[in-house]
Amino acid sequence: xxxxxxxxxxxVGGAARACYSIHNxxxxxxxxxxxxxxxxxxxxxxxxxIVNNSFEKGSRFIRKVIDYSATKLLCNEEYGRFSFPIFxxxxxxxxxxxxxDLINLHWINEGFISLGSLKKLAELNIPIVWxxxxxxxxxxxxxxxxxxxxxxxxxSHCPALKIKGERDFSNSISxxxxxxxxxxxxxxxxxxxxxxxxxxSSLLLKDKKVYVAPTAIDTEIxxxxxxxxxxxELNLNKEKLNVLFGTMNLSDKRKGMHHLIAALEIFNKxxxxxxxxxxxSVFGSLKNSTAIDLSFKLNFLGHxxxxxxxxxxxxxxxxxxxxxxxxxxxxxxxxxxGCGTPVAAFNIGGMPxxxxxxxxxxxxxxxxxxxxxxxxxxxxxxxxxxxxxxxFARQKAVSNYTFELVGQKYIKIYNEILKMS
Length: 421
Fold this sequence. Notes:
By secondary structure, the protein is α/β, with parallel strands linked by helices. The chain has 2 domains: 2-216 and 402-420, 3-Layer(aba) Sandwich (Rossmann fold), CATH 3.40.50; 227-400, Rossmann fold (3-Layer(aba) Sandwich), CATH 3.40.50.2000. 38% of the residues lie in helices and 15% in strands. The protein contains 14 helices and 13 strands. It has helices spanning 14-27, 54-74, 95-98, 115-122, 169-181, 193-201, 227-233, 257-270, 307-315, 331-338, 351-354, 369-385, 388-400, 403-420, and strands spanning 2-9, 32-39, 47-49, 102-105, 128-132, 186-190, 210-212, 241-246, 278-283, 298-302, 319-322, 343-346, 361-364. The strands form 2 sheets. A 7-stranded parallel beta sheet has the order 3-2-1-4-5-6-7, sandwiched between helices. Strands 10-9-8-11-12-13 form a 6-stranded parallel beta sheet, sandwiched between helices. Helix 4 runs parallel beside helix 5. The longest helix has 21 residues, at 54-74. It starts with a strand and ends with a helix.
């Protein structure tokens, strides 16, 4: 079985890392898997780039500028990402595609694969699977819908657009997607049950077969280590409890940082006995963080480029908090569980797939900062009493998200699709 995955990047970004984990899962299950990308960063021999000369680099740059400019000009930035599937290179003649038994799409935006290119791929009569890492495939352009439900009946009057109406850009993109999807052999895979249900309820994908299979993590890297040693190596106080979260971007409301900051302020006031026992840490992006006024100390661990460094951060934490208000199956939660570090999050999206309430973490009522603060306190209190939460966190990861298990699920899905083709 020869599989080719198509994704914008190989290892940069959440969707890319998720895609790469699926690719790696197949390789470890002895499947001939290749990853074809627009932007290659790794040195992996099983990853190929469509950009191999100066002309192609220039074309890629122009596509990215057009995509960025259209978004900046036409969209409300505070609503989140919006992509226009207009321009893309021709990739149908690439040998990895021509010689494949099955094409697996992933995150294909930023001028990588347009709807026109998707139509041409379908004309090869090779089965196409689309692994969704967000909601873009079944919306009129946004990657996450927030409270909007227009995708169920057909997008229009889009809140993400500056100019909205019955026949706005979301409506025209949605109609074009419907036209293309109706005429191609397309199956859908989502990493979470939530995203699968959303896809099945959408106008664009309700007639497509939807499978659910999680992404994987390297449980040999993301494993439990000596917590005090990891704290020392990151210059954290090894005698204090450490609450960790990733990225701090106030402009991305979907990430829920405003809820987390509110929860931490409530935690400090409501549970004063923890003030001298707990410190807070963040790794990753610190975009717009200078505007944050906090009443507590925050340790900035910086950007971590390697999985080993990221794993050390999780191991130095007694609790990881993921405050997203809409999310699929975030890598950060999987990785934290792999390291045996419990997670507190709102009970939304794919979080309940990973977090079992009061067993390997805490699921707070959406979007109650009070309940999230209580969840932080409950988890820290129980971690201090025993290692049961840590054991169940690790157990959840190795029972569901290893390369071997995820690869086997994908192989089963591929075999079923190939039999029907």
